[in-house]
Amino acid sequence: MTSATQAATQPATTATVTVPLYRLAHSRTGDKGNRSNISVIAWHPALWDVLVEQVTEAAVARQFALRQPRQVTRYLLPQLQAMNIVLDDVLDGGVNDALNLDSHGKALSYLLLDMPVTVPAALAPHFGGPPPP
Fold first, then answer.
1. How far is residue 111's CA from residue 59's CA, in Å, rounded to a whole number?
2. pTM of the prediction?
3. What is the pLDDT of residues 36-45, one digit of tens each?
4. Which residue, 20, 46, 87, 102, could crosslink 69 as a Cys pair with Cβ 3.0–4.6 Å?
């Protein structure tokens, strides 16, 4: 087999980069009782498929392992290139019960946005947010 034939039969490798989620999306956080809602909104529609593939319920649960969410539920809003992540039992009881400084959970979006994602390098022109340090 010639090298040209070998090249044609082997799949091409796509260069990737690993970046924090904040390069692909921005976020807002809300709360209701002991439940936190974190929205994830793509900076560009071209980034949506990567978000759906990698910002899964299991990946979010791993990112929040120290907060020990009882359940993580993801709701996709594809027409907006956004998703809503709902984390149950992560606010130490909620605003009326928590003694922590962030009883509303506003800082939780930053924990999520720090999650590493692997992206095809060709999508880098669509990144938003500040470059990683």
1. 12
2. 0.79
3. 889 999 999 9
4. 87
